[in-house]
Amino acid sequence: MKKIVFILLSVCLSVSFAMAQKNGPVVKFDKTVHDFGKVEEKLEKVTTEFSFTNTGNAPLIINRVQTSCGCTTPDYTKAPVLPGKKGVIKVTYSTTGRVYTFTKKITVFTNVPDSVYTLTIKGEVIN
Prior knowledge:
17% of the residues lie in helices and 49% in strands. By secondary structure, it is α+β, with helices and mostly antiparallel strands. Residues 15-21 have low confidence and may be disordered.
């Protein structure tokens, strides 16, 4: 009898542990790359938005967003994004004094375990 109880308890704990591994937030971006194409320097800045959905079953928190240079400025949803809801990361690139082709990386750190997300903007600034 003790063996049966022990086996049932072990199975129950194993299933609970496996289910816990699937719980948590999950990020699904609508896009991860944005191509501005050719933009004029006189615009001074260009902006795009990366929308995402939390497809998991726990609130998603963006801890920070880091850009590859000071010419790129991020703004993002600061409040926790509940399951099934959307958030946005807005990225602005300064074109002033940068007449050349560019590719910039935006790194997104969240509360999703073992996951870091990379977004990319690219284009060409012309006179």
